[in-house]
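Hi L.,

You mentioned the student needs an example of a multi-chain input paired with its predicted structure. This one should do, with 503 residues in total across all chains.
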Amino acid sequence: MNPFTYTRAADPQQATQATAANASAKFLAGGTNLIDLMKMGVERPTQLVDLNRLPLAQIEELPNGGGVRIGALARNSDVAEHALIVQRYPVLSQALLAGASPQLRNLATTGGNLLQRTRCYYFYDPAFPQCNKRQPGSGCGALNGFNRIHAILGQSEQCIATNPSDMNVALAALDAVVQVQGAKGTRSIAFADFHRLPENTPNIDTNLQADELITAVDLPALPFATRSHYLKVRDRASYAFALVSVAAALDIQNGKINAARVALGGVAHKPWRAQKAEAALVGKTADEKTFRAAAEAELAAAKGYKHNSFKIELAKRAIVRALRTVAQMT
Amino acid sequence: MFAQKISETAGASAPASTAKLPLRLKINGKDVAVEVDTRTTLLDFLREDLHLTGSKKGCDHGQCGACTVLVNGRRINSCLSLAIVHDGEEVTTIEGLANGEQLHPVQAAFVEHDGFQCGYCTPGQICSAVACIKEGHVKSDDEIREWMSGNLCRCGAYPNIVDAIKDAAAKSA
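Structure written out for the whole complex:
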């Protein structure tokens, strides 16, 4: 691991001043991804700004009806088992509990999870010469390499990596809002605008600016999210990243779908909000035929590679199964 | 808190040398005050600096759980956490569970149910199991399996590990 200066931020302003002054400084929260990447030599910060003592771990109701604010330092384990989350947003609780292991969830934070980096083998191991995300302009090793875990939606010829987070998929479905604080002040980022598609700059994962610190994630009120579900399909029953995952919520009245939220994980460079599927669901009868049509609509634009084309049909079936599960909830 | 204040270092270029900072911890009930290279993980600190070699380095990437210890009573992967981050906290390792010669109930249950073969993953399994029982995630075999999934056992002692945890949980209830 490269040497670095270690500092503890006394408040968010101090933290952002440090990263504004040093472009190769990094914030340290749970560290479950950053420390690992530093061991691999993928990340080589000259300064770590430890955020762990900042008072940003609360989970509380938002004023004006029904929403919840999750502090950026709230640990994944605490969010998953918090009564407000379990009762109002079961899809988020389920997504968090489907991720990693209890030990990792005790360290991992909400803000850190948002910034989790891809597990693409070609990114994660600098022994591979090609990775546009790690080394812009070097090419994409996965494009013609082993690409079983890679993207089928929204990818570019520059990068076919996927976002590995489960939490992010649920937050996409819930239309979360990311609260950030920078050297110049605070701002709110709609979840759909937080993560990026790779296009020609896959080295940039998110629209967060270098000095900006995530302070909280807000969940707007969504009464029908009590009827929601997270389905994760993976190579073993637990403790593995998703091949495909689905976060789904349905508002069903008298058998008809009034509103729908669907997001996919494991298929794209960002948590994939399935707006085409949602549009195909609204106003229809909540049945198998409707669910399959919605899945077909979303995956119509999907493109597979040598080893991951199976994900296209897998994603369709996962969408149908997740929607069926939600529809059968009483 | 002994870490350098941000205001003293902001704007300065990073030093090329390794940095040591003071670290105070309570480990298995004993106070420890040392200087530590900031790059040292909690696992390396326990094993190399304090010679508490019970916690094992399996994968060193948070994928196997052999390094599991309790920090302020919660289980974590000590390989993915810097020691310096835990300044002022309480760490319990496998060496700190027994009461003198009397095994911790979870240790005794692992012996009774033969919950290991080679033993390399066992310190992590037992620390994880102690937390799993305290968390209350032991209501069924399936729940134990899911909440112990962060601890791999390449000898495949899983059925006996589940039996040991179930037994220890029942006795502690």
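You could point out the following to them. The domain at 105-172 of chain B is CATH 1.10.150.120 (DNA polymerase; domain 1). The CA atoms of residues 73 and 131 of chain B lie 7 Å apart.

Best wishes,
N.
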